Amino acid sequence: MDDERQTAPDVADPRVLEATRRLIALLRERLQAPLSVRLWEGSLEPLGPDPAPGLELHVTSPGVLPSLLRRPTLDRVIRHYAHGRIDFTGGTLLDIAAAFGDGSVGRRLRAVDRWQLARRLWPLLFAPAVSPDATRGFGGDVAGAERKSGDDRRFIGFHYDVGNAFYALFLDPEMQYSCAYYPSFDADLATAQQAKLEMICRKLRLRPGDRLLDIGCGWGGLLCHAARHHGAIGHGVTLSTVQHGFATAKIDDLGLGDRVTVALQDFREVEGSYDKIASIGMYEHIGIANIEAYFRKMRSLLADGGLFLNHAISRGAKRHRRRFGARPEQRALQRYIFPGGELDDIGHTLREMEKVGFEVHDVEGWRWHYARTTRLWCERLTARRAEAEQLVGPETYRIWVAYLAGCAIAFERGSARIFQTVAAKSAKGPPAVPPTRADLYR
């Protein structure tokens, strides 16, 4: 039963097609989903009484369901989707997810009569299955549990080696690959990303001449904004060669070479003293075991009276701490998108900051801001599918669309969170922030 064909038969056994239709009919009663399933031979089976016109989930090979029934793992679903054996039309993956409701699919499926379900699944369980095949994924220790010197460069390289042109398809003109900040939730992405850059600079109380360090500076957007609009002297570090090249060219184009520099360097190698430090979307890459050393390094680089802003995705606190890679969707994220990544909870983050001597001043949750940001990214990338597939191929495109949709859903449902934390080097001396935060919202 474990044997699978590398290529599914062109024409399935009629009993497989009939069993699939009976299975969908049974599910239709419980799911009541406003979409249809397009089967491999062209027929259309609704999953609810009033399917949205054109919104279709495609099963393009008769061997897909037998494959998933024998080994029902998220990794298999991703690989079949990456190869186009599962696909969709008429909307985005977010529309497909919305069609299934509020996440209660599992509860509704558990209400299906098990005997009827078994009768419909039986012919599929023993039908010829198609192998999910391999697809683009990180080879090695995806969790980074045993990370060694140089692993971070490999982790970052894997994520960004899809190229600047690919990211430009869905990011804003400033190439901001982190949570935007929406003055109102009807603001467009470019406006919200500019608002994010300005809010970071305000929270850091940047003044002309301040030495700003941007850890994991990406494509240089924050550094350039801080220099142009706040008179900062900026330095950034990144482990991505494609980002480094882009940021260097941008700095030259804007004539900021005398005020802004970027190095292809690990944060552990940075030396000097800085008045303000920003870490935007980098914390998730360092690994839980390295948090204390990371914060100690940040504090050692911060001048007396300086401010540090840590902007990081987080998860909810658990009764017992577990590594990030415990759940199937998290392991998939590590394998196909973010090798070496782990999410902390905000309580532990604050505790680790205080352990090394930081005084925490502000913590602000931006969950709904990131929900909208990732939703817009997913929609923008989906709209430019042809260009994306030409740049990176259909498999990588599909994986990224699934990743962005999954992130949007996670932030909307609260399983992922994001916080900006502002801290001073210590509690000694006068406070590094004003008595109120009115200046942030002027």
How many distinct beta strands? 12
* Helical content band: 40-55%
Indicate the mean pLDDT: 85
- Rg, Å, rounded: 24 Å
Task: Return residue spans where pLDDT drops below 50 for at least 5 consecutive residues.
Answer: 6-10, 137-145
Number of helices: 17
Strand content: 15-25%
Distance between the termini: 66 Å
Based on secondary structure, the structural category is alpha/beta
**Overall 3D geometry?**
elongated
Element pattern in H and E: HEEEHHEHHHHHHEHEHEEHEHEHEHHHE
Characterize the biggest β-sheet. Answer: 8 strands, mixed
Describe this structure in words.
By secondary structure, the protein is of the alpha/beta class. Helices cover 42% and strands 15% of the residues. It contains 17 helices and 12 strands. It has helices at residues 14-31, 64-70, 74-82, 93-99, 105-110, 114-125, 151-160, 164-168, 189-203, 221-230, 241-253, 291-301, 328-336, 346-355, 367-383, 385-392, 394-413, and strands at residues 36-38, 44-46, 56-59, 86-89, 211-215, 233-238, 260-264, 274-280, 302-315, 344-345, 359-365, 417-424. The strands form 2 sheets. Strands 5, 6, 7, 8, 9, 10, 11 and 12 form an 8-stranded mixed β-sheet that branches. Strands 2-1-3-4 form a 4-stranded mixed β-sheet. Helix 12 (291-301) links the parallel strand 8 and strand 9 (302-315). Helix 1 packs antiparallel against helix 6, helix 12 packs across helix 14 (346-355) and helix 15 (367-383) packs antiparallel against helix 17. The longest helix has 20 residues, at 394-413. The chain is elongated, with a radius of gyration of 24 Å. The termini are far apart. The model is unreliable at 6-10 and 137-145 (pLDDT under 50).
